[in-house]
Amino acid sequence: MGVDRQATVIFDYGEVISLAPDSTARAAIERISGVPAEVLWPAYWAERGDYDRGLAAPEYWRRVAQRCQTTWSTTQLQEIWAADVASWLHVAPTSVALIDRLATRGVELALLSNAPADIAGALRRSPIVRPFSALFFSCDIGLSKPDPAIYRHVLSELASSPSETIFVDDREDNIVTAKELGIDAHHYTDAAELESFLSDRLG
After folding, report:
1. Contact of 111 with 168, CB cutoff 8 Å
2. Which residue range forms the structural domain that includes residue 168?
3. Number of domains the chain is built from
4. Is there a cis peptide before residue 58, judged by omega within 30 degrees of 0?
5. Phi and psi at residue 92, to the nearest 5°
6. Which of 61, 73, 92, 198 is the most exposed place for a label (fewest CB within 10 A)?
7. Sorted alphabetically, which Pfam families does this protein's record hold (predicted)?
């Protein structure tokens, strides 16, 4: 894979570079919380957008507990928080290897993730972000995908035009918005398909 034009490739993190939290991790959070899965996870996701945009963890989990009609002790909250953060830090080796190959070939890489401050803080010190020249987290910007404003912010910060930018994400709504802005976007399903797409784009 060689680069025959200048291009910046922007990667999403969750379920592109990272693995989705597995059943063991989810079961641990359910056990600590004492809340059935069918109640806990809708509450978890209903408040996640604000958490991703900068809401502090204690307030996020207070809101989740309120939706679940329960309360948690400080110890429970700490264990739930730790289990949740840890569940998002496991990465897909094939995706990481592809990113390393792109970096070796001189492709400019950036990260754009909907991530709360707790996960963003861990990722900033993570070995997997070393190939990236820029890291963008929704918690810092106060915006989250698929809001067009977050894409415009990133393009401005990178001084990259949409036509010079490739975006990779696993969520269709995020891809749709990127394409509407003129970004060459790829809906991620697996690393082999992504590598084929990038080979076609980058040469």
Report:
1. no
2. 8-19+90-202
3. 2
4. no
5. -85, 115
6. 73
7. Hydrolase
